[in-house]
Amino acid sequence: MTIVVTGATGHLGRLAIQSLIAKGVPAADIVGLGRQLDKIADLGVQAKHVDYEDVDALTEAFTGADKVLFISGSEVGKRIPQHTNIVTAAKNAGVGLIAYTSIAKADTSDLILAGEHAATERLLADSGVPFVLLRNSWYIENYQVAPALEQGLFGAAGDGKIAAATRADYAEAAASALVGEGHAGKVYELGGEAFTMAELAAEISRQSGRTVTYTDLSPEKYVETLVGVGVPQPFAEVLADSDRGAAAGGLFVERTDLESLLGRPVTPLADAIAQELKN
Fold it and tell me: Which stretches make up the NmrA-like domain (predicted)?
């Protein structure tokens, strides 16, 4: 069985390849597509420099593949044409299953980030290629612990519960969906141990021995704050909008689906923060 992983040289892609190998997939049967191939050179997989813009190269890379882990593109605003190329290539190549990393509640979410994911889900549905949706909630790694120790946490999430999980948990779940049977047509809402931003600050404080506070702002003020520390305005607006949605429950999902794919409990928040403090 040949499995192709797009975005393989990113953080999630590398972890997904490692999880596939840990689950018994021979490295020689895995093809990693990306731009910085040196980042997966040590894994022993077939590595190919393929861009999401190049539908012909994608088709060639997918030819002979049984399954594809389709990791969404990182360029917000460009995903729809890029993702159209991936879906078209997978269809042309006769891929047997696509596992797509979407976002929580993509079909009903009003988050800016959800729009391109929802459009991609529709592309998959219209393609005729069997697929499984891996709707990942937030990543714990989105919250940078080291700066928080010095500056505290800022945001606009209010008391909203955020079901964040580690990249490693999401990667392992994706690998399970690829090596297991009966996942075609399934929609998995994936999230970890839920917390509020104040609870996150309290956990960082407990483990670090330093007082870390969470300052809740309006979305507009949060955009202003982010831009003030160098975040580009469009991305700042996306982050603030995500917090707005989180305040209303948009990033909360039960952990049931993630634990089902993992076959174990999700990584506890305390363990994830401990790891981040070591990094």
Answer: 2-242
Model confidence over 124-177: pLDDT tens digits?
A: 999 999 999 999 999 999 998 989 999 999 999 999 999 999 999 999 999 999
**Under CATH, which architecture does the 3-136+167-190+255-262 domain have?**
3-Layer(aba) Sandwich (3.40)
Give the predicted TM-score (pTM) of the model.
0.96
| CB distance 202 to 272 below 8 Å | no
**Domain-wise residue ranges, the chain:** 3-136+167-190+255-262
**CA 78 – CA 75 distance, rounded (Å):** 6
